[in-house]
From TrEMBL:
This is Uncharacterized protein. It comes from Histidinibacterium aquaticum. It comes from the Bacteria. The lineage of its organism: Bacteria, Pseudomonadati, Pseudomonadota, Alphaproteobacteria, Rhodobacterales.
Length: 78
């Protein structure tokens, strides 16, 4: 197994554990936190034109929070 595969596996495991915890807590504040941060608010016409890696990091963060939110909803049966 490569280092990349191992890292991806660890991140997926963490997401699954965290999703179960969040689904069990069923706290509105946490749901709002995920919903408010699962997308990127671009204030430019083309946010992808940003030459540095900041947009890529923001996109990855929003994508991960979206996946976490979806997994929590799935575990709650919704």
């Amino acid at each position: 197994m490569s280092t990349t595969e191992a890292l991806e596996g660890r991140i997926l495991a963490q997401r699954k554990v965290l999703a179960r915890i969040l689904a069990h807590l069923n706290a509105a504040e946490l749901d709002t936190f995920l919903s408010d941060r699962d997308h990127i608010e671009a204030h430019e016409e083309d946010p992808g034109s940003d030459p540095d890696g900041s947009f890529a990091l923001e996109h990855a963060l929003a994508d991960e929070l979206s996946k976490l939110r979806d997994e929590v909803a799935r575990l709650r049966g919704g």
